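Researcher: Let's do a round of design. I'm pasting the structure tokens now; please hold your answer until I've finished.
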């Protein structure tokens, strides 16, 4: 069983990382939507040193940006309230890139930060970007009504409900990072929003250019397209990732458990390892103890045959990264012991 944390300010300390490895963490994820390999070089160094001090040969996964859309950098966190109006756009308080603005139309619903905030687009206004030729207009502002309020912070994902994504598999920034995987000791690449075997082929070609054929490919299933092509994606990747954050945007939340179970079933049939991620211990971003439902979620993921589990915000920005990793590994080991009593002697779940 593999156990991953996500690198962030909450665990950017050698002693915290050492304790996480001591409790069973086997690897760390770096989300390239927030930080490049070079920008995170010091943090990556601390991860390897902490792992070495515990006798662990750590995995380092990079999570590419891929076709995922995100809001830009906010001047400060922004509280939005249900029923209020808010403007998103190129020069607005909540900035969006021209590429994202081009896809937005009146009448659409937008989900931000894995659906924590929900908006309805009332109208889209055009304008001219400073320095552009006269008369060269483009979509500049989306006036939205807040359907579900919350707190907005920089660089969170934004999803257009029921829209098929036609963006390229790899951005130029992704390709630049892939050329550095050997230099930074990357052992696995997570590819977002995989839509079919073709996306995996493109990533393999890019890795081959960097003499990194041995780097594992983690295919993230987080859209209806990926879910429908799970068979061919599993056949061409090293690990399937059930990325429940964006899956919860692609499907009604009450369907996500069914989708997770069906993906797990396909992976078991194809003898393909799979990883479950997102919100395992979400309450532990602020609570020292998880809910009963959360530990049950971990237990059931292991019982379904998961080969790997991953914490995200719990270790990246949470207040209790070490405790969260301990609850993850202890619960998983309990599930493993229950699944096969023969391994009881090999586990320390005290």
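Researcher: That's everything. Go ahead.
Model: Designed sequence:
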């Amino acid at each position: 069983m593999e156990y991953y944390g996500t690198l962030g300010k909450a665990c950017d300390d050698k002693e915290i990382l050492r304790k996480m490895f001591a409790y069973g963490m086997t690897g760390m994820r770096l989300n390239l939507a927030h930080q490049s390999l070079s920008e995170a070089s010091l943090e990556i160094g601390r991860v390897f040193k902490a792992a070495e001090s515990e006798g662990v040969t750590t995995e380092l996964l990079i999570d590419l940006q891929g076709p995922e859309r995100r809001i830009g950098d906010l001047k400060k966190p922004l509280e939005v309230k249900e029923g209020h109006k808010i403007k998103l756009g190129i020069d607005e308080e909540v900035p969006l890139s021209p590429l994202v603005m081009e896809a937005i139309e009146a009448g659409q619903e937008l989900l931000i930060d894995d659906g924590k905030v929900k908006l309805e687009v009332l109208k889209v206004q055009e304008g001219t970007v400073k320095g552009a030729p006269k008369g060269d207009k483009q979509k500049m502002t989306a006036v939205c009504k807040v359907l579900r309020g919350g707190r907005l912070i920089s660089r969170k994902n934004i999803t257009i409900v029921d829209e098929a994504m036609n963006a390229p598999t790899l951005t130029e920034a992704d390709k630049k990072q892939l050329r550095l995987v050997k230099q930074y000791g990357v052992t696995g690449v997570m590819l977002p929003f995989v839509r079919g075997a073709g996306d995996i082929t493109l990533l393999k070609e890019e890795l081959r250019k960097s003499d990194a054929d041995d780097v594992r490919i983690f295919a993230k299933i987080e859209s209806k397209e990926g879910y429908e092509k799970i068979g061919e994606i599993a056949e061409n990747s090293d690990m399937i990732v059930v990325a429940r954050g964006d899956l919860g945007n692609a499907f009604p939340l009450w369907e996500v458990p069914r989708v997770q179970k069906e993906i797990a079933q396909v992976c078991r049939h194809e003898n393909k390892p799979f990883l479950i991620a997102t919100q395992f211990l979400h309450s532990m971003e602020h609570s020292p103890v998880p809910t009963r439902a959360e530990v049950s979620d971990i237990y059931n993921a292991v019982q379904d045959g998961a080969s790997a589990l991953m914490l995200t915000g719990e270790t990246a920005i949470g207040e209790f990264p070490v405790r969260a990793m301990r609850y993850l590994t202890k619960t998983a080991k309990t599930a493993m012991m229950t699944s096969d009593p023969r391994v009881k002697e090999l586990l320390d779940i005290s």
